[in-house]
From TrEMBL:
Pfam families: ABC_tran, oligo_HPY
GO molecular function, one term: lyase activity
Span of the signal peptide: none
Descriptive protein name: Phosphonate C-P lyase system protein PhnK
Source lineage: Bacteria, Pseudomonadati, Pseudomonadota, Gammaproteobacteria, Aeromonadales
PROSITE patterns to which the protein is assigned, alphabetical: ABC_TRANSPORTER_1 (PS00211), ABC_TRANSPORTER_2 (PS50893)
């Protein structure tokens, strides 16, 4: 079988992801046999994977299969029932790297990682924004959290990022509650990328965006992945987005990973009946 998932307009705008992944010796994130069940079948079970710098892992699957719950657990925001999440802290250049276990460290240290090393783009944009702080303030706050203090420079970077995610710069002093859902989503992405994190977790980041804005945003993300070695875990319903951005895919159904592999492999030659159904339903739509 050699099916192609239609990427129509997006494919015209963006080139495909690099096929070579720069694999460094140690994974940035190592998820080992992780489970979190709120009730039988509600959550996720026995998930394991490794993520390297500059690598994009896509998570797709049916609604309610546990994708958001998994993202919460691997980003240090929801303690699992079982398993380990290991993170390689520190910079390769400084030679001061250390593998830390997310749920064995103090909560304050985990929070610190979320401020300095990671970004989280939430499925519902207002969950990831301060609704009553200005757009510029939402971005500036992240820069201050990593130690920047120069007001002029912070405002300059906020303006640049508003431009990058296509929010009119004259909205810099407006509150996110006055923005459309798509603008809130783009602001959330800007807030998370401004500090150039090493790892970003994204839950349906392109939901609610029109196709052309979505294409340019994906292009921006792909540049950050290749230029800065940004690692990404992205949950998406959109197989076209998964094909364009993800190097590897994990498919979830009923709290379990049913298939995993290189994106092209999974989408062009799906092995599990659920993945076959997912791919063929996109081809027919
Ligand atoms: N805080 C919670 N308490 C109890 N059950 C929860 C909680 N959060 C999620 N669930 C349940 O866990 C299951 C997985 O939810 P989750 O949000 O992870 O699914 P999902 O794959 O992200 O779905 P979608 O694609 O619709 O966003 C669902 O049955 C959901 O109702
Ligand atoms: Mg979800």
């Amino acid at each position: 079988m050699n099916q192609q998932v239609s990427t129509s307009t997006l494919a015209d705008t963006i080139a495909r992801p690099e096929t070579t992944i720069k694999v460094k010796e140690q994974p940035l994130l190592s998820v080992q046999n992780l489970s979190k069940l709120y009730a039988p079948g509600k959550g996720f079970s026995e998930v394991s994977f490794e993520l390297y710098p500059g690598e994009v892992l896509g998570i797709v699957g049916e609604s309610g299969s546990g994708k958001s719950t998994l993202l919460q657990a691997i980003s240090g925001r929801l303690a699992p029932d079982e398993g380990e999440v290991l993170y390689l802290r520190g910079s390769a250049d400084s030679q001061l790297q250390q593998v830390v276990s997310l749920y064995r460290m103090a909560e304050s240290q985990r929070r610190q990682l979320l401020r300095t090393d990671w970004g989280v783009v939430h499925q519902h944009p207002l969950d990831g924004l301060r609704p009553r702080v200005s757009a510029g303030g939402n971005i500036g706050e992240r820069l201050m959290a990593v130690g920047q203090r120069h007001y002029g420079s912070i405002r300059e970077q906020a303006l640049q990022w508003l431009q990058d995610v296509e929010i009119p710069v004259d909205r810099i002093d407006d509150m996110p509650v006055t923005f459309s859902g798509g603008m809130q989503q783009r602001l959330q992405i800007a807030r998370n990328l401004v500090t150039h994190p090493k790892l970003i977790f994204m839950d349906e980041p392109t939901g609610g965006l029109d196709v052309s804005v979505q294409a340019r945003l994906l292009d921006l993300l792909r540049r950050l992945v290749s230029e800065l070695g940004l690692a990404v875990v992205i949950v998406t319903h959109d197989l076209a987005v998964a094909r364009l951005l993800a190097h590897r895919l994990m498919v979830m159904k009923q709290s379990r990973v049913v298939e995993t592999g290189l994106t092209d492999q999974v989408l062009d030659d799906p092995q599990h009946p659920y993945t076959q159904l997912l791919v063929s339903s996109v081809l027919q739509s």
